[in-house]
Amino acid sequence: MKCTVVGMWGGFPKQNGPTSGYLVEKDGFSILLDAGSGVAAHVQNYIDLNDLHHIFLTHYHYDHSVDIGSFLFGRMISTQLGRVDKTLNFYGPGDKGVEARVNKVRNNTFHSYGKNSTFNVGPFSIEFHKNAYTVETYAMRITDDDGHVLVYTADTSYRKSLVRFAEGADVLISECSLYAGEDGEKMGHMDAEEVGGLAAKAGVGKLVLSHLPHYGNLDELAASAESAGGRGVVLAEAGMEIEV
Ligand SMILES: [Zn+2]
Questions:
Q1: pLDDT at position 73
Q2: How much is the pLDDT for 206?
Q3: For the domain with range 2-243, which CATH number is right: 3.30.1490.480, 3.40.350.10, 3.60.15.10, 1.10.287.3510?
Q4: Which residues form the Metallo-beta-lactamase domain (predicted)?
Q5: Ligand 1 centroid – CA 179 distance (Å)
């Protein structure tokens, strides 16, 4: 599978730089992980909106989900114009408000998931890990029909259970909101050392640091993650293509 980073900033977008969004593709089939600020606009650099039918949301903070509305109206209007006749499916933690918002807009459908859910969509199987975060949030493990594995942490503090969940992944896209020495447990996020340690313990082949902070020297994040044992460490950037 191939993963294209649509956006990777934590919290809020930069100028022309979206927050969380990752387009995962194989054999002409696509799924989008998260729909943060600017993702609906920028994902069109890589795919026609009418060819996207599955959006997996990790949680409902704005930097991961605010563009739900853009995708809903996009599908509704394209349906009215006769440009598409397939449903746009949203998958997210159970939330009556989000479910109602999605389902009332023509040609959009909401599916809730929990920690024991598995979805088989096209060539992908998607499993979930309940994170330690301020709101209900899940990491995702995507396995393709060739057995290649991509794990995306979304937002979370460090937990040992993440090591098991990411075990043996070819690629781990991890949030890396904090620099080494900052208090991840208090902030509900991980620092670069924790992320590097997670990747090392899980034996992942390549580590992509994402959900990056708007301050400091980002190269220090990669250096800290490498020192902690992370292999193949790179900083995510918009447009980056990752072969999994
Ligand atoms: Zn976030």
A1: 97
A2: 98
A3: 3.60.15.10
A4: 31-211
A5: 16
